[in-house]
Amino acid sequence: MRASVRGATAADVPAITRFLHGFWPRIPPTTWRSLFEYDWIEDKPDLGFVLTDSQGEIAGFLATIYADRDTPHGRVRFCNVSSWAVLPEQRACALLLVRE
């Protein structure tokens, strides 16, 4: 299967939360929404990265959570990764998410 990676958008959030709920059924989609709705930074560079299969369906996701922190070198933006999930048939493409 051919896969591609793109940045997640607000329009993807419902599908991503359902996708993640499929991996971790004890966590409802409404709880997964918190990955996208944090308010300590206004200008999020992205909402994470989506791996899509050849039909354009979500086959993987890697969440990114950003924070600006004061360091000895000034204010620096940090990116924390979270909730990395990839369908078994697309696992060979999983590192494409990290590469983005």
List keywords for this structure.
100 residues; alpha+beta
Task: Please provide a written account of the structure.
By secondary structure, this protein is an alpha+beta fold. 21% of the residues lie in helices and 35% in strands. It has helices at residues 13-23, 29-32, 94-99, and strands at residues 4-7, 49-52, 58-71, 74-86. A 4-stranded antiparallel sheet has the order 1-2-3-4. The longest helix has 11 residues, at 13-23. It is globular and about 45 Å long. The model has no long low-confidence stretch (mean pLDDT 93).
Strand and helix layout:
Elements: E1 4-7, H1 13-23, H2 29-32, E2 49-52, E3 58-71, E4 74-86, H3 94-99
Antiparallel strand pairs: 1-2, 2-3, 3-4
TL;DR?
The chain has three helices and four strands. It is α+β, with helices and mostly antiparallel strands.
Q: Please count the beta strands (DSSP E, at least 2 residues each).
A: 4
Helix-strand sequence: EHHEEEH
Task: State the end-to-end CA separation.
Answer: 19 Å
Large-scale geometry: globular
Overall structural class, as computed from helix and strand content, comes to alpha+beta
Strand numbers in spatial order across the main sheet? 1-2-3-4
The portion of residues assigned to helices is 10-25%
Low-confidence stretches: none
Mean pLDDT equals 93
Give the helix tally.
Answer: 3
Main β-sheet: number of strands, strand sense, barrel status? 4 strands, antiparallel
